[in-house]
Structures are given as structure tokens and as C-alpha cells.
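Re: [help] complex structure
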Amino acid sequence: METKERKVAVAVDESEESMYALSWFLQNLVPDNHQNTLIFLIYARPPPAIYSPFDAAGDLFSSDVLATVEKYSKDLADSVMKRAKEVYQNFHNVKIEERIGSGDARDVICGLVDTLGVDVLVMGSHGYGFIQRALLGSVSDECAKKVKCPVLIVKRPKN
Amino acid sequence: METKERKVAVAVDESEESMYALSWFLQNLVPDNHQNTLIFLIYARPPPAIYSPFDAAGDLFSSDVLATVEKYSKDLADSVMKRAKEVYQNFHNVKIEERIGSGDARDVICGLVDTLGVDVLVMGSHGYGFIQRALLGSVSDECAKKVKCPVLIVKRPKN
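Output below.
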């Protein structure tokens, strides 16, 4: 009898906490028969809205500036996914897919969790960007309240 | 090579949410080799302090009343553990131990998690008693913030 595939979403960002959460989950809660587990790495790029074509003085940004910001955002996403790969590459049989959304991290994470129909969402406890954290409070707290599936919040030990 | 035993604490109470959390964890995140997983069912009885020997009018409660309250608290603990057993009895090889503490649910849960050195704490999202919930806010929220280990918060689907 084949067991149903289990879908897991791990929210990753540039924080050590999110990489630790991914690593902890793989080490501790992925059963030996990895074949039945599909892990989605989900990442939220900042919403395009914050790249206003106007700066504070109302002048139009040049397309060069916009292209630079766009490139920076793409590089950041690539770098996060690359770091995640360093974490999961030792778990040979685990199936991993990347999903990159654009927008507010909470909306992207909760939206993808819904759309992908995941069984459990894994998050670091203080992840999702120091700017968003400072401005908006803890993304993981809010996602834990909002999503319908079980949520695993992994804290990185201090030492 | 023997793998390290994994210790899991599941906080149970009289709520359906906590029983669902136990069941969901057993079904979804306990690997096939149950032998390496030890599950502590932890339950907090109300603190003895709420059984004041004086009632609102300042009269001393009779020892009969105190005995009745004590018995009610014990019966409630027994009933919760009995319901939990109905949930876990189908998972034949899983090792379960009961730990009943006395006091504020948050202190008992966080304290036991520390003392027992558990690797992950599993809680229902709205559990731990309707009185405490109303008076003190969500126990699971606070435990998730306080304990050092990863916390899995399981929501019971609406349907």
C-alpha cells in the first residue's frame, strides 16, 4: 500500500533562523522513507510596490536604478535558495521544490500554504527579514495564527 | 548504529484541540521506527492555591468540600489521560509516558519541557481550558514564545 505523499512548506529567508529550521526539520521529523515527503521551500521577495518609480523628492528614478533594485532582489532570492541547498543537499532522497512569491511575506507564505495544500508549515522563530521584523512584528507569529494547517516554529539555540 | 531517542512532549487537556494535536502528530510525524520516539503526555492540574480554604464570605470550607474539589481535579486528569489513550492506543509501538504537574498550565508545560529535555513540544492551538483561555489568553501562544525547543501548533480543521 502506498502512503499518501506528505507536503511540507519551509519558509526560508536570509536569516540563520530559517536555515536552522530547515535543517532541524530534515534531521528530526523527516521519516526514513523520504520518498513520501515533498518539501516546498517558499520565499517571499519584497513587493514591487516598494520600488516606486518616484523617490522622496518626486523625481523619477532612472530605469538603471530600478533595474539595479530588481537585480538585487533577484540576487537575494538566489542567495537564499543557494544557502538552503547547502543545508538540504546531504539529505539525498528528499524531494525539494522552490516556490518564490512576490509581496508581503505573510501574504506570500499563507497564500502558498493554501494553494499548495501543504500538511505542515515550518518556520524559524525570528526569521523573515530584519526590516519586516522591525516594522511589522513577527511574521511567524502572524502566519501561525492565519494558516489552517499545523505550524512548526523552530528556535535556533543561543549557543 | 542506534539513533538517538527523540523525546516529544504533547500538552493535553480537556479540549478536542489537544486530542486532535496528539492524533495528528502520531499520524504524520512519528517515523516508522517508533522505538526511537518517546512521547510524554503532559497535563497541568489547576494550582492548589485556587482551592482556598475560605469562601467569598470568609467562612472556612469544610474538609468535605476541599476533598470534593480535589477529587474533581483528579477525575479530570484521569479523564483527559483516558481520552488520550483512546487516541494513541492504535499506534502500537509508540512509547508513551504520562506527566501530570500542578499549577498554572504555562508554567507546568514550560517547566516539564525543560526538565524532561524534550526535542519538540506539540500543542493544540486553542487548548488548555476555557477558563484559563478566557482569563489568560492563549496558553499555546505563550508557551511557543517561552520554551527553547521547537513548538508544533496543530489546529483542528473546522469541518
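Chain A has a mean pLDDT of 81.
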